[in-house]
Amino acid sequence: MTGFDTFIMVDWSGGNQGGVKPQADAIWACVASRSTVQPPVYLRHRQKAEAWLADTLAAERAAGRRVLIGFDFPFGYPAGFGAALTGSDDPFALWDWFAARIEDAPTANNRFDVAGAINQRFGGKGPFWANGLKRDVPGLPRTKAGYETTFPDRRAAETHAKGAFTLWQMAGVGSVGSQAMMGLPVLSRLRARFAPDVAVWPFEPLDRPIAFVEIWPSLTVGVAPDGWIKDQWQVHDVARMMAALPPAQLAQMLDVPVTAEGWIFGLGHEAELRALAAPPPLKNDCFALPSGVTWAPVDQALEALRSRLGPVVGPESCDVADALGRVLATDVTAPRAHPPLPNTAVDGYGFAGGRAEGLHRLPLVAHQMTAGRAPDQGVPAGTAVRILTGAALPPGVDTVILQEDITRDGDDILFHGPIKPGANTRKAGEDVAAGDCVAAAGRVLTPADLALLSAVGVAQVPVRAPLRVGVLSTGDELVAAGGDAGPGQIYDANRPMLLGLVTRLGHRAVDLGQVPDDRAALRDRLDSAVGQVDVIVTSGGASAGDADHVSALLNEAGAMAQWRIAIKPGRPLALGVWQGKPVFGLPGNPVAAMVCTLVFAAPALAQMAGAAWCAPRGFDVPAGFEKRKKAGRREYLRARMEGDKVQVFASEGSGRISGLSWADGLVELPDGAVHIRHGDPVRFIPWGGFGL
Ligand code: AMP
Ligand code: MG
Cys bridge to 576: 105, 149, 554, 678, which one at CB 3.0-4.6 A? Predict the structure, then answer.
């Protein structure tokens, strides 16, 4: 089976048409590719859905794409039913049986009559029950009183799916009996229409360009976020989840035993799939600080961020070649060992076993072993083979002697022992065994990781969608670079700096421009940013003064906490949630804005991007300066290495942008009082230690 390009998920309905306005319990469908998820489509009734499916499949096929299409109703019935009804064990005989008998229109269908007629064939007391109509239906009991059937109540799959309904129940919230009966005729027709391109899972091998797969979103999909209809959210999230699954992992999940009952995709793989589900929405109070906190120590503030923030971006799939800097969404295991076979680490001559001290002579076989060749030709005991670095050891060889350590005598080699058995060889899997975890969820992939993933045969990885971080400057005094600055105005320095920091931190920076100190303008800008970004970073207006509209607005929305953190340089941070999007309100002062970004926003953004929590990495170096500091605030000084000592910028003035530019990093001084003298060890964190 090769991979699929398009994933279409369908949430079916067995009832009459839904309203004109999108609603729950109607038909929903969603189309996703590995890079995009389209908005879910509302299909009011089955005739509309069938036409939409036919058109969509035709368009996908015309574009040469392979399509996996999932339907949320069973493709088969409990064992024995199909054979008893149709005389054949072929599940498609049952599909066609229903297709020939079901009559369907937007406002009426005969499903209860068909169920009653089937019951009458089997003695009139089952297997179907529950009549959703006002009129009585011959053969279809309203309740299970007097119910009798010889068919199993559930398929094998349903015994593994907690909360799944039995197919025999034809009415009632969540029952699938009607959905399957009204869905299988549609599948039967689509299958015929797109023959021979359709393969149905798990009845047929998926070696054709269209695959029909039975899904059950409730198995793995979480609660819908605000503003989403449950079915709309389910098709969206399953489509995205499937598109994010690396093809090898998907193929493994699709590899199930074939029975006429069918199976539910993902059974037994719930944990792996849930790891790919969309993250739960952020809570409005996620930034609340315990009441009574005045000036929080830096570590307490960091711990609050660490424990409350989680990923806000969902997983997607990515080629290993494009995965540099991406955040892994799940653990990745090695499909293949590295090295895959025992091989030689040197150019030399291979033979069996070690040799004791003394002179040894071995005749050479005629062939050679070079890298990339299958080790198909054996080497008889008492002979040796010419073998080059990286070549697999052929049968009969477990030891290699370096070519520099032998002399040739015609077709023989001569060498002196001792040589240990296994010398100069690498064992299969000595680096990585098949099935080992090679990279853990939350890892930000490095060039070396790409080498490791490739070496063990991984071609695609599940990663988090990039975190889109909007950057907005606030202040009446600001003029964008290139504009005319009147007296009293200043150029917007924070925005290019923050956009640069966000980019260097590995996220997708989105320029939200600048707004004056005007509450309505700020509200409009935040509103329009919500659809474009995952997080908003603002600078300026975050304190509690009259012109501090960022904090005022977030306060008004009832979702703000002012974080007064014992840090220098720094002013209060305004942390809040605007329509579900976290807002990081930084101080306007460029030095404080940069320091607060590195110390607080960088780890918070990493966490929201799905990466593991990252504490800054610094090291102790001798101070090239002298300084006294009082207890109370943790202090960060603009600093750089000069020789083997660290120097700090001559002025601690918080408006001195030149000092930021001069520096290679920050010196971090502890919360308590210190007196640093020349040569004392101080902690220096280079920009790279913050993840830049
Ligand atoms: P605020 O946090 O709004 O009270 O601003 C604090 C200081 O930072 C003021 O001197 C502002 O003029 C300055 N400031 C605010 N935003 C920026 C910016 N984007 N670029 C440069 N300086 C700024
Ligand atoms: Mg301001």
Answer: 554
